[in-house]
Recover the amino acids of this structure.
């Protein structure tokens, strides 16, 4: 199996160049983040910390990261506006590219038990200006009492969303990366 694994939806639309560049970042960091080989289960923020500098090298990509002083730089994307046009409700994605409206979310152990993939999909649909959604999930997760394959589950479930055509999403594309 090629690492990282990835699927793109809808199947009749080519992936954006930036989605492929994000996949390449995961591949370049495989020795540190491959969930099939990890000696220690990494949390999503740990994965993001490992890949954030490489993601920031992608043109116009903003990523949650720590600056030189160690301060966490979060991204705010508006959902609703209130009095005086101020953002009333915002979400904080892991990454964002304003040029094409791409949201990036990186998940880890709670992908399946807490339905984070669905929550992230809904949030991406609600954030202003989102056209493309990239979701990274583990290929393998050993949760102590349970072994699961989050990537396979998410791809299966998102395939059903796109192939059934019963649920219309306001996104042009969705890319799932298995790390």
């Amino acid at each position: 199996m090629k690492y990282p694994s990835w699927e793109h939806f809808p199947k009749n639309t080519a992936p954006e160049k930036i989605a492929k560049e994000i996949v390449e970042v995961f591949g370049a960091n495989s020795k540190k983040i491959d969930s099939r080989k990890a000696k220690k289960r990494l949390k999503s923020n740990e994965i993001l910390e490992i890949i954030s500098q490489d993601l920031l090298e992608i043109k116009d990509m903003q990523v949650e990261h720590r600056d030189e002083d160690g301060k966490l730089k979060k991204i705010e994307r508006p959902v609703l506006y209130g009095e005086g046009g101020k953002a009333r409700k915002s979400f904080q994605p892991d990454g964002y590219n304003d040029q094409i409206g791409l949201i990036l979310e990186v998940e880890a152990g709670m992908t399946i038990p807490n339905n984070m993939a669905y929550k992230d999909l809904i949030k991406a649909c609600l954030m202003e200006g989102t056209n493309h959604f990239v979701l990274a999930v583990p290929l393998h997760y050993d949760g102590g009492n349970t072994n699961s394959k989050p990537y396979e589950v998410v791809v299966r479930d998102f395939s059903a969303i796109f192939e059934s055509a019963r649920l219309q999403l306001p996104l042009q594309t969705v890319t799932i990366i298995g790390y």
